[in-house]
Amino acid sequence: MILSDIFKSRLKLIGIVLLFVMPVVYAWYLVFFTNYKMHTKGVEHGLLISPIIQVGDFELFEPISHEKYQLIGKWTLVSFVENKCEKACEFQLYELRQIWLALGKDGNKIQRLAIVKEKNLISSEQIKLSQGHLFLKDDKDLKDRLNSRIKSYPAFDSESIYLIDPYGNLMMQYKKGTNPSGIIKDLERLIRISK
Is 134 in contact with 112 (CB distance < 8 Å)? Predict the structure, then answer.
């Protein structure tokens, strides 16, 4: 009788220990010995560029105030103007401005860069409407160097929005049609983590 009570108590103790140890052992097994969730999407809303592409530093300017800026030092949202800037292009510039405004006090940690293939593809009215969008100097050599680095990404798409980190690394792509609130959440998370 006493022996069976001791045995039952020990079984209960072993059961409680197993209840806490087995999930840890199972998680360890899944992570190190299976491809569990290998290709699932994380919390980011864009596509992580892996490996990252080192873009480097470039001098940028704001065409209305003529102030100069550096690519390195801020998170940079990059858009491309490959053809005449019409409705879709204008909407993308507007969307980037709205993302920047939605970040509020963190907006000073973000800059927006439009890479325009040729000067005549975007009008001065469109530049004024973009409010604070930065551009590369009208230097073909400079544009070619930056374009070749960004376009070295195998899945490059000129209609996508790209994110360059404050160290000059191309790290994320947002395909056309990505919900702007997702981009805002990603930027808020990145700014919070990088503090």
Answer: yes
How wide is the angle at C-alpha 11 spanned by C-alphas 8 and 13, nearest 5°?
Answer: 110
pLDDT reading at 161 higher than 70: yes
Q: Give the pair of three-digit tokens for residue 19.
A: 């209840």
Side-chain half-sphere CA neighbours of 110 within 13 A? 27
Tell me the C-alpha distance between 166 and 18, whole Å.
Answer: 47
Q: For residues 160 and 128, which has the higher predicted lDDT (pLDDT)?
A: 160
Looking at this protein, which amino acid is placed at residue 107? G
DSSP state of 83: S
Contact at 8 Å (CB) between 130 and 99? no
Q: DSSP character for 110?
A: E
